[in-house]
Amino acid sequence: FGPEFTVFDVDGEEPRTGIIASISNDNPALVSCVDDERLEFQDGDLVVFSEVQGMTELNDGKPRKIINARPYSFTLEEDTTNYGVYQKGGIVTQVKQPKVLHFKPLREALRDPGDFLLSDYSKFDRPPLLHLAFQALDKFICELGRYPGSGSEEDAQKLISIAIKMNEDIRNSRVEDVNTKLLRHFAFGARAVLNPIAAMFGGIVGQEVVKACSGKFHPLFQFFYFDSLESLPTEPLEPDDLAPRNCRYDSQISVFGSKLQKKLEDAKVFVVGSGALGCEFLKNLALMGVSCGSQGKLTVTDDDVIEKSNLSRQFLFRDWNIGQAKSTVAAAAATSINPKLHIEALQNRVG
């Protein structure tokens, strides 16, 4: 987005409108609207008037500011004492106001991050700690030339000591309570790349690209942190359970252990529907190794066929698949992602 970015439409919604019932000749002027529908205007909004009879001075297309918005009326920051007397009619329409965002350079933002966008409102104190954790991780990598080892207590304590020292040196945004348990889990899983998290952030980044290209919708401002600490095993895992197996699932094993990975591989799963969400589920299941073991089986059913309109959002399908069964094509695509996937495609209707 650069140091400065203009958002032309903050919420992407249609401009709010109201049907006028009366306008007073006052300073400031009171505008009342019909009570069939509540107004959605807010103080500070800019509005334009049209089709007003009598007080035609307001039909000039000039944006005017609202200073006291109420459910069925608002006060206009304008003196209408010498305007014509309102007779009837008129529509008031909100004018979308551009918003200019000023982004801090990374060096400055690391020292003074400002307000964080929350991903979970039950974790108000989590973003500052994660902000500190990632900076400690960067310093760990710079000093040792590698990520912390999975399940390594020595590396975890090294990262914790770095984080505590960095926090002591911070002046303005110091973390009051450095949660060493969270930092320990952070160190254990720092080298892992988990497909579900990657898929989620891929969607978020894709949305940000659209915002940057269109100037529509408010982008993420500065830092956004997400954690799912509650997904981690509640009991400590043995180092051997976290050791890499030189397979495509080593990242998952380093976080959740090889025993859980074996359960995923031997799971028997039934997926209903292989449309937009079904394609996403099948892709994620294949990448995670679900139903890829000798005892595992994934069954997908969908009685629909692929149409051209599906191609824009159901990403496992291609032009040459039009007219074919969704479940069959999706199963073949999932198998190409992970050849070890044991999958059966049905065309049965469910429900």
Automatic annotation (TrEMBL):
Domain named Ubiquitin-activating enzyme E1 four-helix bundle: residues: 97-167
Highest taxon above the source species: Eukaryota
GO function term, MF aspect, one: ubiquitin activating enzyme activity
Alphabetized UniProt keyword annotations: Ligase
Biological process (GO), any one: DNA damage response
Sequence ranges assigned to domain THIF-type NAD/FAD binding fold in this UniProt record: 249-350
Species of provenance: Opuntia streptacantha
Family: Belongs to the ubiquitin-activating E1 family.
Protein name, entry field: E1 ubiquitin-activating enzyme
InterPro entries xref list: E1_4HB, E1_FCCH, E1_FCCH_sf, ThiF/MoeB/HesA, ThiF_NAD_FAD-bd, Ubiquitin-activating_enz, UBQ-activ_enz_E1_CS
